[in-house]
Amino acid sequence: MFPPCLQKRQSCPFANDMPLSAILAAMQNIIEISNLSKSYASGFTALKNVSLDIRRGEIFALLGPNGAGKTTLISIVCGIVNPTEGTVRVNGHGIISDYRAARAMIGLVPQELTTDAFESVWATVSFSRGLFGKPPNPAHIEKVLRSLSLWEKKDNKLVTLSGGMKRRVLIAKALSHEPEILFLDEPTAGVDVELRRDMWNLVRGLKASGVTIILTTHYIDEAEEMADRIGVINRGEIILIEEKAELMRKLGQKKLALQLEDAIAQVPAGLSGYRLALSADGCELTYTYDAQDEPGRIITLLKDLADNGVQFKDLQTTQSSLEDIFVSLVGEKK
Question: Boundaries of each ABC transporter domain copy (predicted)?
Fold first, then answer.
């Protein structure tokens, strides 16, 4: 059964004269970015022909070094910066042709701590809701403030709050109008461990309620824990988009470390095909292999070790983290 807006195509923003395949794609993708570029008068190009679809209800992590184009991309989608070329649609609404409808669906938590210093927490969050034409809803504002441990501070002026508390207020403002999409641009940079924990608990709850979340972060462990898909941007270009689990499977290297019974001076010639690394003290051999390698390869290695007179007393395996993969990808594109 199609949702009501598709049963009455004229009331659906992306259904007018569109083929069914396009309608179904719009249902799945809440943000559609096509051939997006941004150049400045100085000649600097911040984005180069970026195309990206964000799926409804997912957590998408956008990773990249400083100056890669992450904030520029977010700013364009949120209507803060105009693109030079390309199109962006938010739930079928063009960000330029139908700005109000597109922007009303988005909550943005920026990097900068910009707040109205002499307003109270309650007043500034309530005001943000009103900016989007939403009627007053004290119950919703209370729920948001409590979820961010701000309820006890609701009457405090922003100027009296710590940096971490101000960051919580920015998140509350972004959620004040009940957006369907939440952008988190480096949301936990420079904040305390408690806020990071509260923040990610909130993100999990928002995802469970159907909110689509796009985040940039320098804490790659957060992306590894939270994201459904990973995008990597470098020098204004998207260099990879992949399901997190598939990315880890395809690019994650594994290492087998063998603690030897007796130190050896060099790797025996009969083991040269494995490209084993010998530790400086001669007591450990390390075998690096791709996650896709056949399991039988390890068994063969262990047999060949014995055939070459190398005995080991212990072994352990480790796998590349998302951070290792990210560093590798960005390094290849320099």
Answer: 31-260
